[in-house]
Amino acid sequence: MSFEELSHTADVKIRARAETLEALFTDAFLALMQVVYGTDRCDGIIKEIRIESDNIESLLCDFLSEVLFISEVEGLVFSRAGIAIENLHLTAVLHGEFFDPLRHSSGTEVKGISYSGLIIHKDANGYMLDILFDV
Known about the structure:
Elements: E1 3-6, E2 12-18, H1 21-37, E3 45-52, H2 56-74, E4 76-86, E5 89-98, H3 101-104, E6 112-123, E7 126-134
């Protein structure tokens, strides 16, 4: 994992760096799950999702929003993801478990993923992301 939480006045701001888009999206996914549920997350349930968007920023926001929706509606806490991106199509295999209030209640409620301040930048070292989670 290569992400860090940055200081922000009202929301949770995350910065991630990775060599590939798939790794960058994975880090953003892991950051979201850690913010919401903490670090005690296991496998056992598999969920596959597919997302298609108009641009890479929308693809990331749509993916994280779908993960957040599934997590809340189905009561699932995800620990890892296998992500494949081809053009603007994403396939993710999510691994997780059912929510356990004794283990997963230490995080912060995230209401949504913000486009405000969203930056995905590519340079010679790979990709860098700044993203806000609305809390």
